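Run folding on both entries below.
>entry_1
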Amino acid sequence: MLAIARLIRAVTGLVVLVIVVGILLWVLSANPHNVIVSDIHDAANWLTTPFHGLFSVKGSKLHLAVNWGVAAVVYAIVGGFLASLAARAIPRRRGFGRRVRPVA
């Protein structure tokens, strides 16, 4: 279960990273015709689809940054919660590390 918790944290970190880099590339006006920029933006756009239009803010850059930023925060919270649940599901051994005195 610990390996699953680590995998969930890794995937969550990767998703949040893609979204944040997508935000930065959009806000900093990176060349959208560049293959890397386009791929990152497409992946971030797909990951944030449920959050499109969540808030209406003037300015296309601010609109994208706010909505995608909310998506990144939600992914981080949900992923951290799921990883925590998986880590807590590890069976604990009772009395581990304690010395038991023999009964005389």
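>entry_2
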Amino acid sequence: MLDTPLQHFTQDISRAKALVNHAQAVRIEMLRDDILRAAWMMAVGSCDAYFSDAYADLLSRTIRAKELQPAITLPERLNDTKVPVTAIISEARGGWRWRMAARALMEKDNVLSLKKIKELFNLFFRDHHKLLTTETIGDWICHRNAKSRLFGLTATEYRAKSPSAKEAAKKQALKQFQELFKDIFQRRHDCIYNCDRPRIALQQISDIATSKTIENIEFLVTRCHEAFLAEFTTFLTNLGCSGATRNQVCA
């Protein structure tokens, strides 16, 4: 489950890193900066592709589970999902048919905001376990790969706080995390649509800033991936799926 989205993300983020490495050897400043902009866009694109593919993967497995076990009741939002007619009449059978349908649903969309990520995926999560809330952000702050730039404080600083101070710190950390990724995604938009010139002056860029952005994106995707793997089996179980059904959809 989710092996292919993660494999593609790993390959694509490596391409972004390779561009940064290549840029460091370029002596023409304008060309070097544009290679770094390409790396930034590649990194954000790899993030978008991962979440699009991961949602298609989880959605197709859920629909397949419903097909195998019609008595289960899907969440209202999934019940309202409009499946392309081509998928229904397709000669493909089983999970592959629903995978194609789910991918078709995502083709005209992108997943380039934390709000959109939460909107798509939190329906697969239990209450109090959802992505990017003050209830769950503490674990992210304390993760071994977390950087202080992501949340505005280190794990050590967070752990040392009193319970009441931790609540305030979590709210501030979540706000900082959201603002950071809003800027990361906006910079990709600026590069594509305005040649990285959203106003008058060309925005500055550096290999250090680009490398940190790639690290930030890796952190987001890896943490979400771990959360998807941890929650999806429970999601199907809570729908009423039997062990046999879960096995058939590889969950």
